[in-house]
């Protein structure tokens, strides 16, 4: 670890991050879907701390193993709905900082404007956590 996690070192930062996640959750999104998105984005970003954390939350919520373990290959397995796949595609493209019209339009077919906003906030939050954890070399404790 290079430094303590910045959200623990800067007054108000942790609360701001928690508030962002609460705002996203208040849009009525399914909690398991948000956790699956967090896991997928964390895998993309190589954040072991978040991969560990969100996998444990999904297991605790009794999400079926195949939905947890296949999240990196979501396109090629039958475990996710079309709406969930649209959310994964949105998450991947937002993580790469470019959302194509095709991905946006597909997501908009499945999610209301408020739900899309909630998805976007959740995706932004997990990307921020990932970047902070990776840059400061946070590690999973045994």
UniProtKB/TrEMBL annotation:
> What are this entry's molecular-function GO terms?
peroxiredoxin activity
The keyword Ribosomal protein is assigned to this record: no
Q: Which domain of life is it from?
A: Bacteria
Q: Which residues form the Carboxymuconolactone decarboxylase-like domain?
A: 11-93
Ordered alphabetically, the record's keywords are: Oxidoreductase, Peroxidase
Which PANTHER family does the entry mention? 4-CARBOXYMUCONOLACTONE DECARBOXYLASE FAMILY PROTEIN (AFU_ORTHOLOGUE AFUA_6G11590) (PTHR34846), BLL7811 PROTEIN (PTHR34846:SF7)
Protein name (Swiss-Prot/TrEMBL): Alkylhydroperoxidase AhpD family core domain-containing protein
Q: Give the source species.
A: Lentzea xinjiangensis
């Amino acid at each position: 670890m290079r430094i303590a996690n910045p959200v623990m070192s800067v007054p108000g930062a942790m609360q701001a991050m928690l508030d962002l996640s609460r705002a996203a959750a208040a849009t009525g999104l399914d909690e398991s879907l948000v956790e699956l998105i967090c896991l997928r984005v964390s895998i993309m970003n190589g954040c072991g701390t978040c991969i560990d954390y969100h996998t444990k939350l999904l297991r605790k919520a009794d999400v079926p193993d195949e939905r947890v373990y296949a999240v990196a290959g979501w396109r090629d397995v039958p475990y996710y709905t079309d709406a969930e796949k649209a959310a994964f595609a949105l998450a991947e493209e937002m993580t790469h900082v470019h959302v194509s019209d095709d991905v946006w339009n597909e997501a908009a077919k499945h999610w209301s404007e408020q739900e899309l906003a909630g998805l976007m906030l959740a995706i932004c939050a997990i990307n921020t956590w990932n970047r902070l954890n990776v840059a400061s070399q946070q590690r999973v404790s045994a």
